[in-house]
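Budget justification note: compute hours in this period were largely spent on complex prediction jobs such as the one shown. Inputs:
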Amino acid sequence: MIEIKNLVKQFGKLRAVDDVSLTVGKGKVVVIIGPSGSGKSTVLRCINHLEVPTSGEIVVDGIVVSQNHKNINAIRAEVGMVFQQFNLFPHLTAIENIMLAQRIVRGRGQDEARKMAMQQLERVGIPEKASVYPSQLSGGQQQRVAIARALAMNPKIMLFDEPTSALDPEMIKEVLDVMMELAKSGMTMICVTHEMGFARNAADEVIFMDHGKIVERNTPQAFFANPHEARAQAFLRQILH
Amino acid sequence: MAPISSSAKSSTQNQFVGKLSQLPWWLIIIILAGLVLFYNFLSNETYVAIFSRVRSGIVLTVAVATVSYFIAIVIGLIVGLGRVSKNPIIYNLATLYVQIVRGVPILVLIFYVALVIIPPMLTLFGIRPATFDFSFRAVIALAVAYGGFEAETFRAGIQSIGRGQMEAARSLGMSYMQAMRYIILPQAVRRILPPLGNDFISILKDSSLVSVLGVNDITNLARLYAASSFRYPETYNTLAFMYLAMTLILSLIVKAIENRLAKSSQ
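Corresponding output:
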């Protein structure tokens, strides 16, 4: 589904992503962990071209991600992305947030888009918030609307960029529950997160990154029980206390 | 008992003074001056003559201000988008325009546009410059001048919207222009509505500058009347008060819009 070959992203002197190669099969859930500044988010942002890679190749569902504009918009419509800061559109209600891109990108009619939006709001458990503006929603509810917005586009892949990092602790679970349900439903997912419980229970594969490189990749069972690399061991010790 | 009652008295006195100081005295003074002037309009023959002469320019003043304002908004939107463009050619063209227009006094720009730029362009399109009305030239000149200010207002508004909004829109597959149209601009325009409203007040005042082109707005009519009658104080009293009345009404409208926006964004 996603093939990343020798991806490099340079920010000035800093090499944020340093020769990363990664393949994610259909229906797989991959969790990327690592200390902050290790290039996890940048890898994710390169996949839908929010960052332009310095070199390397990314193939999403058979389409090469390149500078070609039509190409990029086509890929972005197939790749849903959920951000740390939710990034809901504050001037639109929850349901309008979910309907807009369906209408202008997918070309769906008003009724079809509305029906799909309600379906997704029910899936994330807040259909009663359809006509509420984002500023009146809690962080957890905002993030669930953001997930519903991405899902309404019928993406083949979902990218999660630290979706729970900006949330109060009591709201993390409601978002993780939605992500868990999504993982079980067979969605292809790449998640950057610090939620080790989610990695343990939902991931098919855990990738540990440090200084822009993939240091270790393994099944969650093996990774958490017995990390090979010293840096991964140190990281886990710190994050699991 | 005495000290208590005296302190109570002074506190009510303080309250009275406090309330007095909260009154919008500036508005009361203007209204009083307006009433005096209005009385003169009705009773003093000189004022009656001046007012009936200058009044005929109000439509032109308002028309010049309004039309050039809307053209300036359109220019401002397009150039403002250019100012945030990543395309270096578009960005530099937009910046060139803004820097030139903002660096030259409006009065000079009006002469320049009306007398230097427009005539050759008219010849280019096969129109005899002499037949092209000067109030049209004035409108275009004022619009070109204000387009530069509006462009910077739009740029500031667009840049005040967080990067995440554009990223979220793009990640849903929207094109850059779709994201601008549906996500960024609606939020930006809401934020810049107060400065845009104030710019309309400014353009109404600056429309007096087009009198140098011989356009018969209220300033020009007043100038001509004063020069022929030597009634300078009466004429310019009237003129100043007409502008003041228009700008005050407009600023109250802008304030009402601001209040409404503040309420709706809560």
